[in-house]
Design goal:
The protein is of the alpha/beta class. It has four helices and six strands, in the order ββββααβαβα.
């Protein structure tokens, strides 16, 4: 898997609820990950749908577009942060999904405002 340094996709793990986040795994390298938010799968290997090096929406969309179109259209809800790039990824890849801002991001906004 030559591409594994740049991205990895487990489209068979797709579910109706997804979370897309930026992650820093080591040495400040940023990745964008898509994981199932199904509580039964939480932290198991089946919860990872995709991991893409970097945070550029174009790169993430290119990987996620490899998922079956029916599964993308059936997506019910995607949890994301407030970044414009995340919004773009979700609206292009999962056009019918409800977009929900993660609770952590709302709490951070509120705390920063105080």
């Amino acid at each position: 898997m030559e591409y594994a340094d740049e991205w990895i996709l487990f489209s068979e793990n797709i579910d109706l609820h997804l979370a897309i986040n930026e992650s820093s795994l080591s040495n400040g390298e940023l990745y964008t990950s898509a994981t199932n938010t199904n509580r039964d799968l939480h932290t198991r290997k089946e919860s990872l749908v995709a991991a893409v090096a970097g945070t550029k929406s174009v790169d993430v969309i290119q990987v996620l577009k490899q998922i079956d179109g029916k599964a993308c259209k059936a997506m019910a809800k995607v949890t994301l942060d407030l970044a414009d790039s995340m919004y773009r990824i979700v609206t292009i890849t999962f056009p019918k999904a409800k977009r929900v801002i993660g609770r952590f991001h709302i709490q951070k906004l509120a705390c920063d405002a105080v």
